[in-house]
Amino acid sequence: MAESPRLTHEEFFKSLTTLLTTATSKEKSTVYLTQKPLLYPSAPITSTAGNSPLLIRATNGNSKDQRKKSDKRDGRIKISTVVMPDELQGFFEKYAEVAKGGMGSLKKRDRKARKKAKKKGKEGGGGGKEGV
Known about the structure:
Blueprint: H1 9-25, E1 31-37, E2 54-60, H2 62-68, E3 78-83, H3 88-102, H4 112-123
Antiparallel strand pairs: 1-2, 2-3
């Protein structure tokens, strides 16, 4: 599978903003944000993540759905960029700003139903063995 080309930081932030905006405007849409150290095959295994560049990716949640439906990946959006160790501070400041901005229209999770179910389970009999 051919991987999408890596974007510059500004292109990445622009695409991420668009991705987050479209994801939050739709119902039941997911955006996955991942980061991991970018280790080159020639680099020694003992190198630490602090010295290696980071690979930052963002994908929409359509990839799993598309695989189930005849393996078409038309709806998949995948963007990535590489951040060098000396650029981390500035990158993460902007990254946090963009991520927080994209979370504005998210629906708050309803925890009441889960708490009620948990409470109901505790009241329902204890579940311990008696007379053993």
